[in-house]
Batch of 2 targets.
Target 1
Amino acid sequence: MQNDKKDGYIWDLNIKPKIEMLDAEMKRYFEVCKEKLGMVPNVILANATDIDRLKNFVNFYNRLMIKEGYLSKLEREMIAVVVSSCNKCFYCLIAHGAAVRQLSNNQILGDELMINYRSANLSKKNRLMLDFAYKLTETPSKIDNADRNILREANFKEEEILEIIEVASFFNMSNRIAAGTDMRPNKEYHNMARE
């Protein structure tokens, strides 16, 4: 499969999804993806190479990014984009940049966050949240109580701080898997939520 980057290309591993092995719950999940997105994201297909891997990924992703949390869905997607920008993760930048465009109804916010979130028109609170996520990504050993206190002083609750940490950490893991496998974003993401 190496260098064979045609339609349907998921990653640079000769491991294919085991769609026929999906149980009823995961088959329904695939259908929901098709209904809501018009596709099954390649990250889901890649994780479908093993049913346990897929279920673990879907459950953790849905808890962090789909279900109601302490942060808004837009804030969580913004963290995903900024972490992915720091890591230069092509897959997550394209997929989550599209989510930022959809949730914000702003055609350029996702692109600004991808290139340099510091130049984006953000609230002070959102900028501090993204500063923390970026530092946790770039220099995790330098995070200390002073960094958490900055968030507390900006009126982030303890649960919100933990959610910032969880979302940033999840995307650091996902970015490394995507980079390590050369996972490619679905072509549909490129034009999603653009006028």
Target 2
Amino acid sequence: MAMNCIIIDDDKMSRKILEEYIQRTDSLKLLHSYANAIDAINQMHTLPEPVHLIFLDIEMPEMNGIDFLNTLKQTNSQIIIVSAKDKYAVTAFEYDVTDYLLKPFNYARFYKSVDRAFKKIDNFMSVKSLNNENTTSEEIFIKKNATLLKLNFNDILFIEALENYIIINTFDEKYTIHFTMKAIEEKLPPNKFKRIHRSYIINLNKIKGIEENSVLIKTNEGTKLLPIGKSYKEDLIKTLNVILK
């Protein structure tokens, strides 16, 4: 499978280098190269094929890379940031980007990022394919090495983000996979799971209590205290069957 990709970068030389690297990579197909984010956001929907991967610069006039990410409310596209400065890295990874390429970079570093994106898409497609077979399924399949492992929803306690990975915590074991929080959230039933923080998704049935801005989850090591983000707390309380005096 070839990944369809686009470039969004106002620097002509940077676009040229990326275009050359993409041309040398059999697993990539360049759909379009944009000189600014405004053209990209207005024209992406006219592309003949879906976009799997976006190479995105941060510092651009009128609409910067972060502004562009804010417009992508629902997307399965992988994002690789391409920037001359590392000061945006922390902010970028809050958007579940796949990687952060610091200019200048060589082909080896470029290919490493592409391979990381390809593995994420491969994992996503494996989960999507299996879940689509039965929309009322009570389990999810995850890729562990060369094996597809079945996890029952009821066995999952919580899921946490770890840089470019997620950790699925069950009562007996932890599974670390190359996936994003956004992608796994879309695969979980919303009546069973709720995101309470940019780094945590919990199984609602595993809540033992709520203390101010924390949720208590029972694990095999005792009680785990997970933070509730301010923007998530109200939605969590509405979801629970709460009796308020």
